[in-house]
Automatic annotation (TrEMBL):
Organism domain of life: Bacteria
Pfam families linked: DUF2062
Signal peptide stretch: none
Protein name as catalogued: DUF2062 domain-containing protein
Organism: Paracoccus seriniphilus
C-alpha cells in the first residue's frame, strides 16, 4: 500500500511516460498536471482523485493527467508538503510555535480516530468528544488548508509551465519519428515495372503508328 512493487523510481518513470503519451493538446495536459499538483498540497486525504478531477474539469485540463499528477503526493513527499503547508498557514494566521512533520501526521491520525469514536457514539453507549477536534482544526487543519492553497498554487503554476514544453517537444519528436517511419516504408515498397517500348501505352507509340500508315 505504501511502497510500489517496482520501486519509486520505476513508478515515477511510468507516470512521466504516461503523461508524455497522452493524446491531447499540451496546454490541456499541463492544466491537468497543475490540477493534480495543486490538490496534492491540500489536506483532502482520501479525496485527492475526486478533487483533482473536479479541478481539471473546471479549468479545462486533461482528467487523466490530473489523476496521474496526484502521484506528487505520496508517503515520501507528504511529510515535507505537510510541514511546508502548516508552517506557512500558521505564520499567516499568526499562530505561535512550529510543528514537526511527525506531530502533524500523528494529529491527523488522532483526529481520524476521534471522528470514528464520535460516529460510533451515535449508535452505542460511548460519549462523543469534540474538544480535541476543535483544537486540531484550529491549530493544524485550517493552517494546512491556508498554507496548502498558497504553496499549491505556486507549485501548480510551475508544474504547468514545466510540463507544456516537455509535452510539446515529445509530440514534435514523435511526429518526426512517425514521418520518417512512413517514408522508410514507402521507399521499401516495389515500384511498378515500366511499360515496354512497343506497347500502345508507351510514350510516342501512337505517333509512330500514325506515321507509318
Amino acid at each position: 500500500m505504501i511502497y510500489p512493487r517496482g520501486g519509486w523510481r520505476r513508478a515515477g518513470t511510468y507516470v512521466l511516460h504516461r503523461l508524455r503519451r497522452l493524446p491531447d493538446h499540451p496546454h490541456r495536459i499541463g492544466r491537468g498536471v497543475a490540477a493534480g499538483v495543486f490538490v496534492s498540497f491540500t489536506p483532502l486525504f482520501g479525496l485527492h482523485f475526486l478533487s483533482a478531477a473536479g479541478c481539471a474539469w473546471i479549468i479545462g485540463g486533461n482528467l487523466l493527467a490530473a489523476l496521474l499528477a496526484t502521484f506528487i503526493g505520496n508517503p515520501i513527499t507528504f511529510p515535507f508538503i505537510a510541514m511546508l503547508a502548516v508552517s506557512i498557514g500558521r505564520y499567516i494566521l499568526g499562530l505561535k510555535g512550529d510543528l514537526s512533520p511527525h506531530r502533524i501526521l500523528g494529529e491527523f491520525g488522532h483526529a481520524g480516530a476521534e471522528i470514528g469514536h464520535n460516529i460510533r457514539s451515535i449508535f452505542g453507549p460511548e460519549r462523543a468528544h469534540w474538544g480535541q477536534l476543535a483544537e486540531f482544526f484550529t491549530q493544524i487543519y485550517w493552517p494546512y488548508v491556508v498554507g496548502g492553497v498558497i504553496s499549491g498554487l505556486v507549485a501548480s503554476v510551475a508544474a504547468h509551465y514545466l510540463t507544456v514544453p516537455v509535452i510539446r517537444a515529445y509530440h514534435r519528436r514523435r511526429t518526426k519519428i512517425m514521418a520518417e517511419r512512413i517514408a522508410r516504408v514507402g521507399n521499401m515498397q516495389p515500384r511498378p515495372p515500366a511499360p515496354p517500348s512497343d506497347s500502345p501505352s508507351a510514350p510516342g507509340s501512337s505517333d509512330k503508328g500514325r506515321g507509318t500508315q
